[in-house]
Design goal:
With 327 residues, this protein is of the alpha/beta class. It folds into 2 domains: 168 residues, Rossmann fold; 124 residues, Rossmann fold. It has 12 helices and 12 strands. The strands form 2 sheets. A 6-stranded parallel beta sheet has the order 2-1-3-4-5-11, with helices on both faces. It has a 6-stranded mixed beta sheet with strand order 7-6-8-9-10-12, sandwiched between helices. Helix 8 crosses helix 9. The longest helix has 21 residues. It starts with a helix and ends in a 5-residue tail after the last helix.
């Protein structure tokens, strides 16, 4: 296990290990009864259900984190995803019917998932939400949320863009109906203190996305920055700027090898890193601790994993971690 993972696993699993020491063969007054949460037989099953699209490098890292936590903590983790909110709801319903011990779910479209998430909670299955929908998590009965606050992250991106000298920014939304993307663009406008224009593209049609961004840059030469909300879109935004003969700076949310390479060669100014490995890893830890001790984390507030800014000052260090699938 890489050193960062070992440290994270130790730090977060320490309360669990201490609880195990005090309940297994200890001298408790009740004769060594199970923990407050009823205990776990070591076969805890957790289903992770996200809205990620197949082949999306961002969600591959989330999956890596969840599966690594399962290996570290002895939890059976089943990762599933579907970008269609109705099918995602069906996956939640199927997990409930299977009687899993915990569910992790990203809520890009909270309204579409509300009934299914609340049904899981009503069935006695603890739920941790991740990535999107944090403002609805407690309402639906989840025991916690892990992710970044999209408005705060957007504001951070806006401030970085302002420092780059931008004043007219194109914000590229790649998933229709994803409230988190709208919050990023709105936050960027606040942080920038100037014009941020949202434009809709389809993450499943990157050629079309490139054409749309190119058209926007050609039609408005005053656009001096493009903010992508996805690493794959950032790569086509670089090509769009070249196609349009634009000097607009390119910035993005999230990392992949292309974005890291772009920051290193100067074609991408910076990336807002929400550290999605943690969004996979931490919920499994939280569900394990809840099963063992009824521990909860966050006090009703989200556990924030970002934003962190990756730019020329730190990209080389990040590159080594990304190659291991943890960033």
């Amino acid at each position: 296990m890489p050193a960062p993972r070992r440290l994270l696993a130790f730090a977060l699993a320490a309360p669990l290990l201490l609880a195990s020491c005090t309940t297994d063969g200890g001298d408790s007054d009740d004769g060594g009864s199970a923990n407050a949460g009823g205990g776990s037989d070591g076969d805890l099953s957790v289903t992770v259900i996200t809205h990620g699209s197949a082949g999306d490098a961002f969600w591959d890292v989330v999956q890596n984190g969840a599966e690594a936590a399962g290996e570290d903590l002895g939890v059976d983790v089943d990762y599933q995803s579907d970008g269609d909110p109705q099918r995602q709801a069906q996956l939640i319903d199927a997990a409930v019917n299977q009687g899993v011990d915990g569910i992790v779910v990203s809520m890009a479209n909270p309204d579409a998932l509300q009934e299914s998430v609340e049904s899981a909670v009503a069935a006695g299955i603890p739920v941790v939400t991740i990535n999107s929908g944090g403002d609805r998590s407690t309402e639906f009965g989840a025991i916690g949320h892990v992710g970044q606050d999209e408005t705060i992250a957007g504001e951070g991106a806006g401030r970085e863009l302002a420092a780059e000298g931008a004043s007219n920014v194109l914000c590229v939304i790649h998933e229709a109906g994803n409230i988190g993307h709208e919050q990023r663009c709105a936050g960027a406008a606040t942080g920038l203190g100037a014009t941020v224009t949202p434009v809709q593209v389809d993450i499943n049609d990157l050629t079309g996305a490139q054409s749309t961004i190119t058209s926007q840059l050609q039609s408005d030469p005053t656009i001096d920055a493009v903010l992508a909300l996805n690493s794959a879109v950032a790569a086509v935004a670089v090509e769009s700027a070249a196609d349009a003969g634009s000097d607009a700076s390119i910035a993005t949310f999230d990392l992949n090898q292309d974005v890291i390479g772009g920051i290193q060669d100067g074609s991408i100014a910076f990336a807002v890193d929400q550290q999605q490995y943690e969004q996979g890893y931490l919920p499994v830890v939280m569900l394990k601790l809840y099963a063992e001790n009824l521990n909860t984390v966050g006090g009703g507030q989200p556990v924030l994993t970002g934003p962190g800014i990756v730019d020329a000052t730190n990209v080389d260090e990040i590159a080594d971690l990304a190659s291991a699938g943890t960033r």
